[in-house]
C-alpha cells in the first residue's frame, strides 16, 4: 500500500533526516547499510543512531535485515521523505494532498505551492531491483546498483526533457526536482484513454498530438512511451506528459522510436474511432513529422 509520507514529516526531527541521509549515502555501496557504518555516514553518535533508527523504522522509513550483519535500507517512503524535506526547505511546496495517479513506475500527488502542483515520485528499479537481489548472494554487493540510482536517473531524464520542451511543446511546466522526485504544473484534464471524442473532434485532436510530437522532435526529443495514457485532453488542447524514457533526437534509435510512437497513437485512434481514422501509412507520417512539414493526418488517410 502506498503511504503518503507527508503526515509523517511533521513528527520528524532534524537528526532523523541526518540518519535517513546517512542511510542514503551508505546505499551507494550496498543494499543494506551496516549499523556501525551509520555513525560515519550520518555524523551521529552510536546511541543517537540507534535511537533514530528505531524512530525511522517505526514509521516505515527504513527497513532492517539481519543476514551476516545487521543492516538497514531506505524504503521508498524513506526516500520520499528526504525529497519532500528538500522541497519544503526550498519552499517549493508547503503541503501534500490527494493522489493524482498511481502508475506502475510512479506515484503522483497533488501538492500545494503558490498554486496547486503535481509531485511525482519515480519508482523505476524498485520492484525489479528486489527481484534481482533475491536471486543473488549477499556478497554480490560489489555489483550493487541501487534502485535509488535508477529512480533518480529517471527523474533527471524526465526533468531535463520538460525543461527543454516547455513551453514550445505542450508539457507540464517543470518547477523543481530533487532525488527521484519532480514538481511540475498540475494539469487539469482527462487522460485521452478516458475521453470519448465527438466524431468531428477526432482528427483535430489527433493532429494536435502529432503536432506536439513534431515540435518535440525538432526541439530535440522523441517521447518513446507515447500512448493514450500519457496524453491529457484539456479545455484548450492536449498536454503530453510522462517523459522519463525520452530519447534525444540525435540518438541512433530516435527515428525508429518516433515511428513506434506514431504507430502507438495512430493505432489507438484507429481502433477507437474507425469511422474517422482508417488506414494510415505510419512510416510516411513519421517521415513527415521528422522533416517538419506536417500539416494534418488527413493527408495520410485513404
Ligand atoms: N502534471 C500532472 N498533473 C496532473 N496529473 C498528473 C500529472 N502527471 C501525472 N499525473 C497523473 O499521474 C498518473 C501517472 O503519471 P505518469 O507521469 O504517467 O507516470 P507513469 O510513468 O507511472 O505512467 C497519470 O496517469 C496522471 O493521471
Ligand atoms: Mg504514464
From TrEMBL:
Family assignment from sequence similarity: Belongs to the protein kinase superfamily. RIO-type Ser/Thr kinase family.
KW Glycoprotein (keyword) present: no
The EC number(s) this enzyme carries: 2.7.11.1
Domain of life (superkingdom): Archaea
Pfam families registered for this protein in UniProt: RIO1, Rio2_N
Reactions it catalyzes: L-threonyl-[protein] + ATP = O-phospho-L-threonyl-[protein] + ADP + H(+); L-seryl-[protein] + ATP = O-phospho-L-seryl-[protein] + ADP + H(+)
Native source species: Haloarcula salina
Protein kinase domain span: 94-302
Name of the protein in its database record: non-specific serine/threonine protein kinase
GO molecular function: ATP binding; metal ion binding; protein serine/threonine kinase activity
Amino acid at each position: 500500500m502506498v503511504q503518503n509520507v507527508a503526515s509523517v514529516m511533521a513528527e520528524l526531527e532534524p537528526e532523523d533526516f541526518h540518519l535517513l541521509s546517512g542511510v542514503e549515502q551508505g546505499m551507494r555501496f550496498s543494499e543494506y547499510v551496516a549499523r556501525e557504518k551509520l555513525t560515519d555516514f550520518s555524523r551521529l553518535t552510536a546511541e543517537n543512531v540507534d535511537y533514530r533508527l528505531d524512530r525511522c523504522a517505526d514509521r516505515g522509513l527504513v527497513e532492517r535485515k539481519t543476514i551476516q550483519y545487521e543492516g538497514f535500507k531506505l524504503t521508498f517512503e524513506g526516500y520520499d521523505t528526504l525529497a519532500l524535506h528538500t522541497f519544503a526547505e526550498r519552499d517549493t511546496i508547503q503541503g501534500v494532498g490527494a493522489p493524482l495517479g498511481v502508475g506502475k513506475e510512479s506515484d503522483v500527488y497533488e501538492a500545494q505551492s503558490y498554486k496547486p502542483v503535481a509531485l511525482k515520485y519515480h519508482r523505476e528499479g524498485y520492484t525489479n531491483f528486489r527481484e534481482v537481489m533475491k536471486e543473488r548472494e549477499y556478497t554480490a554487493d560489489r555489483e550493487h546498483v541501487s534502485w535509488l540510482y535508477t529512480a533518480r536517473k529517471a527523474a533527471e531524464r524526465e526533468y531535463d526533457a520538460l525543461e527543454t520542451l516547455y513551453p514550445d511543446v505542450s508539457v507540464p511546466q517543470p518547477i523543481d526536482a530533487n532525488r527521484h522526485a519532480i514538481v511540475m504544473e498540475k494539469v487539469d484534464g482527462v487522460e485521452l484513454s478516458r475521453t470519448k471524442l465527438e466524431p468531428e473532434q477526432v482528427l483535430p485532436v489527433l493532429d494536435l498530438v502529432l503536432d506536439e510530437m513534431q515540435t518535440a522532435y525538432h526541439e530535440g526529443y522523441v517521447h518513446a512511451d507515447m500512448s493514450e495514457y500519457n496524453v491529457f485532453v484539456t479545455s484548450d488542447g492536449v498536454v503530453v506528459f510522462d517523459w522519463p524514457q525520452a530519447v534525444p533526437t540525435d540518438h541512433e534509435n530516435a527515428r525508429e522510436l518516433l515511428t513506434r510512437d506514431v504507430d502507438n497513437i495512430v493505432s489507438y485512434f484507429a481502433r477507437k474511432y474507425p469511422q474517422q481514422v482508417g488506414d494510415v501509412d505510419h512510416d510516411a507520417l513519421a517521415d513527415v513529422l521528422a522533416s517538419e512539414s506536417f500539416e494534418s493526418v488527413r493527408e495520410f488517410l485513404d
